[in-house]
Amino acid sequence: MASWGYDESNGPHKWGESFPICKDGVRQSPVEITTSKVEVKPEFKPLEFKYVPDNTKDIENTGSSWKVNINGTGSSLSGGPLKEKHELWQYHAHWGSDNSKGSEHRVDGNMYAAELHLVHWNTKYASPEEAAEKEDGLAVLGMFIEVGTKHEEFNKIVEALDRIKYKGDQTVLASPVDPTKFLPESKDFWTYEGSLTTPPLYESVTWLVFRQPIQFSEEQINAMRKIAFCCKDDKHHAMVNNFRPPVPLGSRVVQGNATQ
């Protein structure tokens, strides 16, 4: 696969050279959410989460983020606009070099310091890899992160970041992480049909972006900024600004489960 990243030589403005869907796609992500244009769908059923903490044990540095891999089944998402059950596959984050930027989605022009993505795959397909290439294959929960109080559950991940400082590093979390504890108190969400925000940029994602942000402490967000894009033997290149700017919504409509 062609090399891609977030700097001047291989960043999002260059992805289209290796991944034509970046330029030619019709449902790319992320997008700007304009709250005054959201179509309210009160018929959406509440989202249902069933997460198994014991399945979240392995964490790695992918060279574009940290990523927690889900081992086994049983952690699922359903409801809202989803017609089938989706299994949790992995989760990761995107963040900025300072707290003024970092989130991939924007709301009325505003960015957050970071954004957490819980990636699920449609179990009507045989594997997450197969689902990732299907138009209804993935569902991603997006959570905005703002600077505030320390997040106790996320601290389990922070404590592992020193052990995955470089691209390719992988370790086992000291204790299982419960993804349920990342969910905001309010489960109101926006949803639209989109894509992966990193190459290969497959247009296979039903996005569910929570309206209410969650909080990580300044120290916790800084810990993410200390890991590296690069391998151990390369010059240290701090992993910051690993987000794709918003792309045009086009003819798509962002829907919501409640009034703004």
Description:
GO terms for molecular function: carbonate dehydratase activity; zinc ion binding. Residues 2-258 form the Alpha-carbonic anhydrase domain. Pfam families: Carb_anhydrase. It catalyses: hydrogencarbonate + H(+) = CO2 + H2O. One of its GO terms (cellular component) is cytoplasm. This protein has 260 residues and is mainly β. The chain has a single domain, classed as Alpha carbonic anhydrase (Carbonic Anhydrase II, Roll). 9% of the residues lie in helices and 30% in strands. The protein contains four helices and 15 strands. It has helices at 21-24, 128-131, 155-161, 218-225, and strands spanning 32-33, 39-40, 45-50, 56-61, 66-70, 76-80, 86-95, 106-107, 114-122, 138-147, 170-172, 189-194, 205-210, 214-216, 255-256. The strands form two sheets. Strands 2, 3, 4, 5, 6, 7, 9, 10, 11, 12, 13, 14 and 15 form a 13-stranded mixed β-sheet that branches. The chain has a two-stranded parallel ribbon with strand order 1-8. β4 and β5 (66-70) form a beta hairpin. It is globular and about 50 Å long. The model has no long low-confidence stretch (mean pLDDT 95).
